[in-house]
Amino acid sequence: MKRDFLTIFDLSSEELERILQRTGFLKAHREQGRRGAKEQGNKGAVPPPPCPSVPLPFRPLEGKTVGLIFRKPSTRTRVSFEVGILDLGGHSLFLSSSELQLGRGESVKDSARVLSRYLDGLVIRTFAHEELEEWARYATIPVVNGLSDLYHPCQILADLFTIQEHRGTYRGVQVAYVGDGNNVAHSWLAAAGKLGFHLAIASPPGYQPREEVVIRALELAQKSGSSIEILQDPVQAVRGADVIYTDVWASMGQEAEEAQRLQAFQGYQVNRRLVEEAQKPAYILHCLPAHRGQEITDEVLEGESSLVLDQAENRLHVQKAILEWLIGEPC
Ligand code: CP
Ligand code: NVA
């Protein structure tokens, strides 16, 4: 039975934990390999394999091709997936939707069934989450969400791994998300539902996370021990926070609403004053790309508690763990 990764809700807590654990292994393995290669004048030093029983070199995606279908622009997601697939010994095919027959109206149903005959996996970035579900329904190969209007699960797994690297664990950590109740906020809610930590989301009226996502996360939180608060006041959200997170006020596809959103989000900027309201040192996270001077100031984004570059790097490592789990040869 093939598996997909469309939302964090799709995985059990144990599966999520295993992916995060595996991410650490794959990151250390890559760093060791690169260090070794440098020390030996790039003559191909071989690091120990991440699975002791697997012969070197470690290439769980050997002979496999993963298609990347993007209906929206991307820097991090596209490049980290392409590099990650190459690292795992596989081949990636970037398929801009405008160059596929899909862009001329071929159905998702036909595209998914045809591409499943050539490829071993699909990473899709699109608008409606329902379209992603349709891809997953008709494709006979695993489908990974590279961002939809509703969720951005790879991002939040990378964020959790980043928090774990810097704090030792994400368990019990207090995360304050200040801003739009968008795809990133929804994936934070799903993560809080599954894994035990505290999440406070502060958004202006009309821009809060979707009720059905909040309800689902709250139900799961009863078991995971997480606490979830949906607030309007950013100061209340950041008080006592270990991590302060924000994202753009107008996501891709919402460009026409930008002026209206700029107005609505006044008072929700993550700036020095707001960060000080945490009353203790807090890490700053942002999925990027950022609009400096809007949702976050340059000073905070560049400050010493900012982890944004580690977050971006960790997309690569966590996605390798996801691909290995979904598509790779088991080890
Ligand atoms: N954070 C993120 O997904 O970035 P890209 O849009 O550049 O892929
Ligand atoms: N919420 C943003 C995230 C970008 C990575 C968007 O969807 O545009």
List keywords for this structure.
331 residues; alpha/beta; Rossmann fold; 5-stranded parallel sheet; 4-stranded parallel sheet; 12 helices; 42% helix; globular; binds phosphoric acid mono(formamide)ester; binds norvaline
Summarize the structure in words.
The chain is an alpha/beta fold and about 325 residues long. The protein folds into two domains: about 10-150 and about 315-325, Rossmann fold (3-Layer(aba) Sandwich); about 155-310, Rossmann fold (3-Layer(aba) Sandwich), CATH 3.40.50. The protein is about 40% helix and about 15% strand. It is built from twelve helices and nine strands. A five-stranded parallel sheet has the order 7-6-5-8-9. Strands 2-1-3-4 form a four-stranded parallel sheet, sandwiched between helices. Helix 2 (about 75-85) packs across helix 12. It is globular, with a radius of gyration of 20 Å. The two termini are about 20 Å apart. The site of norvaline (NVA) has 10 residues, from helix 6.
